[in-house]
Amino acid sequence: MILYLLSFIFSSIFGILLLHSHTYVRAVTKPRGDGLAVQSSHIGEPARVGGVAVLLSLLAVAIIQTVFQETDQTPLLLLSVLPVFIAGLAEDIGHRVSPRGRFLAAIVSAIAAVSLLGAWAPRSDIPYLDAAMPLPAVAIILTVLFSAGFCHAVNLIDGMNGLASAVVTISALGCAAISAQAAQPEITGFALLLAAGTIGFLPLNWPYARLFLGDAGAYGLGHLLVWIPFLLAWKTDTVAVPALMLVIFWPLADVLHTILRRLAERASILQPDKMHLHQKVRRMLDIIWFGYQGRQRSNPLTTLVLLPFITAPVVTGTLLWDQPTAAWCALGAFMLAFSLAHPLTVRLAHKLR
Predict the structure, then answer these.
(1) Can you give the pLDDT at residue 154?
(2) How far apart (Å, rounded) are the C-alpha atoms in residues 295 and 299?
(3) What three-state secondary structure class fits 323?
(4) I need a labelling partner for 280 at 20 to 30 A (CA). Which of 61, 67, 75, 97 fits?
(5) Which cofactor names does the annotation list (predicted)?
(6) Who wins on pLDDT, 350 or 110?
(7) Which residues partner with 47 through β-bridges?
């Protein structure tokens, strides 16, 4: 329990220190013009170093943990995150790193995790695909691509105050619940450390964003989060893979819907836009209540509105943690609901305007 409390406290302290070091942070940061970006939903340009606070808190706890406990998993996971964290941080301080460059960095981090942990996704709970999963080359390639894609997915949902942090926290708690039921205490411990560290940062990002998570935070936390399900699938045969996908559902659903939509529109899948569900919900709130100058209120409220829908698949995954067939059915139902939410949100905005 003390380690989880320390993760929370360290994250808060590091975040406050970074917040009050804004003069130095500004000095090393090149102008980015985030407020003018097509996908922007915020006012002002807070420093994008919140992810640094969370990762530093996890590093501090990992050092304490290795002194007093026998563990090699947490330090190795933190070591593997460095490539994508550095690429994201470079982008955050104005040294432009293209989406393709950040995706490649996420691939390097995934390869590092496979090498350091000696683990990967051993199965998919899809019969025909599982026939090929015993081949390490196939399983490792799929693991690396899924890991890199998930990092990018978490970055895509980092568009509202507190949204990405809330998703990571809730998903990490869901992973902890599943790993506890599967009798994997080390994985449970890391998931709770991740949740506690992210919660420590949350008050600085919601309701008003004094710090942004940044690409370093979004990609870094995405990498750490997705490797919890990988390790669970690697260490136990009883955990259903679709249940793990339910626990990390929101970023997966968002990125899959985005890719399919952009392919249908013959648009680049790497270019930002304002068509994510959280952006549609914010515009709906502006249209119905706040007006087009109401971002300061509609932005944090969007996260609150979405919280029940973010939590529902996570809770479902924890309940169906060892029932693959039921979990696949639930996953399909939630994917359908997520897709329908897009036109329904637009229709509701037009109806109530």
Answers:
(1) 96
(2) 5
(3) coil
(4) 97
(5) Mg(2+)
(6) 110
(7) 211
For residue 41, what pLDDT is reported?
52
Q: Which residues touch 223 (CB under 8 Å, ≥6 apart)?
A: 80, 81, 84, 85, 106, 109, 110, 113, 147, 150, 151
Give the annotated binding-site residues for Mg(2+): 155, 215
In this structure, what DSSP letter does residue 28 have?
T
Say what the pTM is.
0.94
**CA distances, 177 to each of 61, 243, 347 (Å):** 21, 12, 37
Residue 193: partners with Cβ closer than 8 Å, 6 or more residues away: 3, 4, 7, 58, 61, 74
Task: Give the annotated binding-site residues.
Answer: 155, 215
DSSP single-letter state for residue 333: H
Q: What pLDDT score was predicted for residue 29?
A: 72
3-state secondary structure of 345: helix
Strand, helix or coil at 239? coil
299 in Cβ contact with 42 (< 8 Å) = yes
